[in-house]
Specification:
Oligomer: single chain
Number of strands: 11
Helix content: 40-55%
Order of helices and strands: HEHEHEHHEEHEHEHEHEEHHEHHH
Radius of gyration: 23 Å
Shape: globular
Number of domains: 1
Strand content: 15-25%
Strand order of the largest sheet: 7-6-8-5-9-11
Structural class: alpha/beta
CATH architecture: 3-Layer(aba) Sandwich
């Protein structure tokens, strides 16, 4: 009996050592983004984290830092390239600091629906070639998640470019976005997302532009109640991993992380698409004025010079993007 109890105690001790060793061997990976806790980006990041831990049998645990805790989008991408963080998810235009041609994905009015956008990002040969350049810049794209179409929230009503004149609008640091907003008549103010609400409230800017999910999660409609559905840019958010992190993973763990990222993509895409109307209704119930039918043709006409300006800088790439986008629009109505 004594021998049996001793063996049991010894076995339990060994199990404890094994568990401790397993816990200490778990590697923490940092995932930084700028969305709020109630946003779809955060929800997807949490699902991704669970899948990574599951598919690597607990060897890796993804710790998610939301709300710009570790930095704004440009800082996150810089840290990603340096290996300071392991994952981030941001608009394609934010990655253009390292891959300038990705500015072309921000050209105005080239995608008309979610179905078109998903097909373009999944099948465009031009875009795949650009994404393939990323590892040499210090990161690689794992999957394309969703942010939605970008729209305006302003203090005063906005129906056409005539209403934009003399108004200062906040946007993120992206060349193509600056060109088109200035072409519409806005003055531009670049600032980090967490500073925008207060800037509108204090009158430093007259409004901002972002996808519906971002507008809702940051409550911009409270200080800029005129929500105008311009849909001027389709803005998905590719998920990227630091190339330094990737190089440390075994082939099996690389496959596991990629699988997790790609499995979350349809979940996150559908969440954004399906939530747009719910979020608009909720904002309207809280006092937002939703303009569903601005003078879209006037906005489209105002940004026509942007395509010529893009050709001057990016040459033949512009027509490759427009050709892929046109083929998608023809295939998916």
């Amino acid at each position: 009996m004594k021998t049996s109890k001793a063996l049991i105690r010894f076995s339990l001790a060994l199990a404890g050592v094994a568990l401790a060793t397993s816990a200490s061997a778990q590697t923490i990976l940092k995932f930084s983004h700028t969305d709020q806790q109630q946003g779809a980006r955060q929800a997807a990041a949490q699902v991704f984290a669970k899948k990574v831990e599951e598919y690597t049998q607990g060897r890796y645990k993804v710790q998610v830092f939301c709300c710009g805790q570790l930095g704004n989008d440009p800082k996150n991408i810089e840290q990603l390239a340096l290996g300071g963080i392991d994952f981030t998810v941001s608009a394609t235009g934010s990655y253009a600091t390292f891959l300038p041609t990705l500015n072309l994905t921000m050209m105005p009015f080239i995608i008309d629906s979610y179905a078109q956008g998903w097909k373009f990002y999944d099948e465009s040969k031009w875009l795949k070639a650009q994404f393939d350049k990323a590892p040499a810049k210090g990161f690689r794209f794992l999957a394309t998640w969703e942010a939605g179409f970008r729209n305006m929230t302003t203090k005063d009503p906005l129906n056409s470019p005539a209403d934009a004149k003399g108004k200062k609008l906040r946007t993120f640091p992206n060349e193509m976005m600056r060109w088109q907003l200035e072409a519409m008549g806005f003055g531009i103010q670049i600032m980090p997302l967490p500073e925008v609400y207060l800037a509108i409230q204090q009158g430093a800017v007259a409004g901002q532009e972002n996808p519906i999910d971002t507008i809702a999660s940051n409550k911009f409609y409270e200080v800029a109640p005129n929500v105008t559905l311009t849909n001027h840019v389709y803005s998905p958010i590719p998920l990227a991993i630091s190339e330094k992190t990737w190089a440390r993973l075994s082939p099996a763990d690389q496959q596991a992380v990629t699988r997790a990222a790609q499995e979350v993509a349809p979940f996150q895409r559908n969440m954004i698409r399906d939530n747009d109307e719910k979020l608009l209704a909720d904002m309207a119930s809280k006092g937002a004025k939703i303009n569903r039918k601005p003078d879209t043709e006037a906005f489209r006409k105002s940004v026509e010079p942007v395509y010529a300006k893009a050709r001057e800088k990016y040459g033949a790439d512009v027509d490759l993007v427009l050709s892929d986008a046109a083929a998608v629009r023809k295939a998916v109505k």
